[in-house]
Specification:
578 residues, alpha/beta, eight-stranded mixed β-sheet
Length: 578
């Protein structure tokens, strides 16, 4: 009888799960009492070890010397440090007196860790073979020096997830454009905060006009070549076009946002099918019936659990939702991914060893990853870090855009797009985290505020990018009503931090401008004789833009982004597509 059948699986070494099936004469991995598991490589048939014989065990932390691996499946492993005469843990009489039983939550963590029983496979020769099997599933693509070199547990993580429209795989040619080279059809930059309290998933519209930079690449045949960049083209051409690889998309994201990703993952049509099926389907909600001949989605209003071909059709639907644009489809994709996250983090998945193993098999087979994370242990570690974020603090958003003059493409929205990029660069949450709310309240400058129309200020560039003073003047006069402002070129010296100098009787003006610009108290420099005369001969404050300046209208305060004016939804919220 296997360990799970005895109801003592919480204290059983994973090696104990290998049991002899008397009908077949083979050893099988038994994770539930009802049925043998499928999809897990079985060890070679062999007679049971002689009584008293114990096969050696190995860990998966490093490839072992396989010369001594026996053909039989190892028996249960004795806990490290236990005396030989003691009964084995999990066996009859094996629980030590007074030893507390593990909580359900801890048992879940033991089984899932990084959502895989990599933990289960480190204890036997058969387990090692399964570990190698999963490693061999992983398809790697060179990062070509475009990444940071890899994530770290002590800093924020930026992961680029790319969905390609390449029609490889059974049945996918029927979706049209079967000769597609595989463009960046769906792209999400996932930022996980340094303290792991929150994450931002930012969708990048495929039809947004960007500059694709020069891109050194490693081609499929192993040759290396640099593909010339292209200014002002659709973002989706950063992959596939002219032989561009995912590292080119990574460089394009860095060029656009100023954020250098740690890693990338690429998913094709088959990845959507296999991953949605592996977790038993994804629940979605529709406000109306959808019958889309192009995507082949046919669903009535209400809730549905979809997987496989139906899940792919849902993600490809655009003409039957919203305004029928790619931006409307992005909202569908975010709804689907939010639901998938909830499903993956639910106990229905975490406590089901079959789903966990199916997910491991599907994920390693369906996804291509960069060359820095092509090992199960690294992927598991990355998964554990991402998994620390609570669902309610995972925020989905989209790069703010405006229509281009051609009517078919969009452009990053001035100020707003850069403000969102700055928020992510500075590791600021898009959710209301209590700590940040307190910081925001503490940062408020006390005192009266002048009306924006009464604020008089001269603007100088003291280390910001060229054109920043003029851009700030335009923003002040056209967007926030500071009409009594002027820009006077470059400052006499370069400053690392932006400052606002003013006379004491201009404090109400200073507080108003600090609010508008997100200036901290340390940026304000009051003092007699600090102001100067403006073009109307009146005293004006002096604003000097330093190296920390991030763009006109972009807050310089790193306390909270709760008031950031972009569309955002958290993964814990269920929404219905309309």
């Amino acid at each position: 009888m296997d360990a799970q059948g005895r109801g003592r699986a919480d204290d059983i070494d994973p090696a104990d799960q290998w049991v002899l099936n008397p009908s077949t004469g083979e050893y099988e991995l038994r994770l539930t009492p009802s049925a043998p598991q499928s999809g897990v490589p079985r060890p070679r048939r062999a007679a049971p070890a002689a009584a008293g014989a114990r096969a050696s065990t190995r860990t998966a932390t490093a490839p072992p010397d396989t010369r001594g691996i026996p053909d039989t499946v190892p028996g249960p492993r004795r806990r490290r440090g236990a005396p030989k005469e003691d009964p084995l843990p999990g066996r009859r009489g094996g629980r030590g007196k007074g030893k507390p039983r593990k909580s359900a939550g801890k048992r879940i963590l033991v089984w899932t860790g990084g959502s895989l029983a990599f933990l289960l496979v480190g204890v036997s020769a058969a387990g090692y073979l399964y570990y190698q099997h999963l490693n061999s599933n992983i398809k790697k693509i060179a990062d070509d020096g475009a990444s940071t070199g890899g994530f770290s547990k002590d800093r924020a993580i930026n992961l680029l997830v790319i969905g390609t429209d390449k029609r490889t795989g059974a049945g996918n040619e029927s979706y049209g454009d079967k000769e597609s080279v595989g463009h960046a059809d769906t792209t999400i930059l996932l930022h996980v905060s340094k303290d792991r309290t929150n994450a931002t998933a930012m969708s990048i519209p495929r039809d947004m006009i960007v500059d694709v930079p020069d891109c050194p690449t490693t081609q499929e045949d192993g040759t290396k070549r640099t593909i010339a960049g292209t200014p002002e083209v659709r973002f989706n051409t950063s992959l596939g076009q002219d032989g561009r690889t995912p590292s080119c998309t990574m460089r394009t994201v860095t060029e656009l946002t100023g954020i250098k990703p740690d890693h990338f993952m690429v998913a094709d049509f088959n990845a959507v099918k296999t991953l949605s099926t592996a977790i038993g389907g994804v629940e979605v909600c529709l406000e109306k019936d959808i019958k889309d001949s192009k995507s082949k989605l046919d669903l009535t209003a209400g809730k549905h659990t979809i997987e496989g071909e139906q899940a792919l059709a849902f993600l490809r639907t655009r003409y039957s939702v919203g305004l029928g644009s790619d931006l409307s489809r992005i909202q569908l994709q975010q709804q689907f991914l939010s639901s998938m996250i909830r499903q993956m983090k639910s106990e229905d998945t975490l406590t089901d060893p079959t789903k966990v193993l199916n997910l491991a098999e599907a994920a390693t087979s369906a996804l291509s990853v960069d060359s820095k994370i092509t090992d199960i242990k690294k992927l598991a570690s990355l998964g554990q870090e991402v998994g620390k974020v609570k669902t309610k603090n995972i925020t989905f958003t989209t790069v703010p855009v405006v229509d281009n003059t051609d009517g078919a493409t969009v452009l990053p929205m001035p100020q707003k797009a850069e403000q969102l990029f700055s928020t992510i660069r500075n590791d600021i949450s898009l959710t209301e985290v209590k700590k940040q709310a307190k910081q925001k309240a503490a940062a408020k400058l006390k005192g009266a505020r002048a009306d924006a129309s009464e604020v008089r200020v001269n603007i100088y560039n003291g280390g910001a990018e060229a054109g920043s003073a003029q851009a700030t003047l335009s923003w002040m006069q056209n967007d926030v009503g500071v009409t009594k402002s002027s820009q006077l070129g470059n400052a006499d010296k370069t400053l690392s931090k932006t400052t606002l100098a003013y006379d004491p009787d201009q404090a109400d003006q200073a507080r108003k401008l600090a609010d508008l610009m997100g200036l901290s108290a340390s940026a304000l420099k009051p003092g007699e004789g600090n102001s100067e005369t403006n073009s109307q001969g009146l005293p004006a404050m002096v604003l000097t833009l330093g190296k920390d300046f991030r763009g006109a209208g972009v807050s310089l305060s790193a306390t909270s982004a709760a008031d950031l004016d972009v569309e955002k939804n958290t993964a814990d919220k269920e929404k219905c597509a309309s």
